[in-house]
């Protein structure tokens, strides 16, 4: 079933509790992109993956713009960096609200907003989940696969791997500022390999395996 919406930002009208004190910053960086996407890239929070000024995920910061460039190279993204067009890709954060001075959310603050992320993920119903960084990867593996207890949360080892989940294929991405030689090529090759496959069968296969 396709989502019927022409809204690129916050297509499902999420209204999380937030309060933004810093002048010129967005109170939240909502989910953004193609609401019918097969691929969903998931960051941790605006302070690390960007968008506090633009309101668009994966902009402004070094990690954010590097992730956006990765998906440009994979031909999911076109248009200006701060106002991109995403095709077959949806981008969002585990914790969408901005916090003063760009600080990281506490565990309690993550827990408060994860339900909004989870609701959005279920609405998008993508086939491929691409969590970026340790916090997003931990949540996605814990909530959408049975594999979290079997895996160490070592992003250098998990990076660009394919993990079958409960109805999803999960492909973790190490934060770009931590990439070493070969990391960028590895994740781009994995994405291109998935695109070249019959990846829309992922949901049926993942459900039986994961």
CATH architecture: 3-Layer(aba) Sandwich
Question: Average pLDDT across residues?
Answer: 92
CATH superfamily: Uracil-DNA glycosylase-like domain
Strand-pairing-aware structural class:
alpha/beta
Alpha plus pi helix count: 7
Strand content: 5-15%
Describe what you observe in this structure.
- By secondary structure, the chain is of the alpha/beta class.
- Helices cover 34% and strands 11% of the residues.
- It has a single domain (32-209), classed as Uracil-DNA glycosylase-like domain (Uracil-DNA Glycosylase, subunit E, 3-Layer(aba) Sandwich), CATH 3.40.470.10.
- β3 and β4 (85-86) form a beta hairpin.
- The protein has helices at 46-49, 62-73, 107-124, 134-144, 155-158, 183-196, 202-209; strands at 32-33, 39-43, 77-78, 85-86, 89-93, 128-131, 163-164, 169-170.
- The radius of gyration is 16 Å and the shape is globular.
- The chain has a six-stranded mixed β-sheet with strand order 1-5-2-6-8-7. Strands 3-4 form a two-stranded antiparallel ribbon.
- The chain has seven helices and eight strands; from the N terminus they run ββααβββαβααββαα.
- Keywords: 4Fe-4S, DNA damage, DNA repair, Hydrolase, Iron, Iron-sulfur, Metal-binding.
- One of its GO terms (molecular function) is 4 iron, 4 sulfur cluster binding.
- This is Uracil DNA glycosylase.
- One of its GO terms (biological process) is DNA repair.
- Pfam families: UDG.
Task: Show the helix and strand layout.
Layout: E1 32-33, E2 39-43, H1 46-49, H2 62-73, E3 77-78, E4 85-86, E5 89-93, H3 107-124, E6 128-131, H4 134-144, H5 155-158, E7 163-164, E8 169-170, H6 183-196, H7 202-209
Parallel strand pairs: 2-5, 2-6, 6-8
Antiparallel strand pairs: 1-5, 3-4, 7-8
